[in-house]
Amino acid sequence: MSNPSPLSNESITPSSPETEPHREYYDRIVRSLKGPVQFLSFWAAIALPFVYLPLLTQGLGDPTVIVAFVTLLVANVFALYVGHGYDG
Average pLDDT for consecutive 10-residue bins of the chain (88 residues)? Predict the structure, then answer.
C-alpha cells in the first residue's frame, strides 16, 4: 500500500486559452523573419572577409584597427552561424 502523492493531477492546469493566440502570433513572426535573416546572414558572411583586406594591408599595429578586426571577425562568425541553413 503506497501513500498517495500530495499533489494530484488536477493541480496541474493546462495553459490558459489567452496565451495561445500570442504564441501563434510570435511563431508566425519568427517563421516570416527566418528566411530573410538567413539570407542576409549568408551574404554578410561572404562579404565580410573583403572588409578584412584593407585592415590587414594597413597592419594590426594600431589598437583601434585590432578592435575593428576582432569585431568584424566576431560578426563574421555570427553571420556564418545564423546563415548556415540558407540554401540560396
Answer: 60 58 86 91 94 89 92 95 87
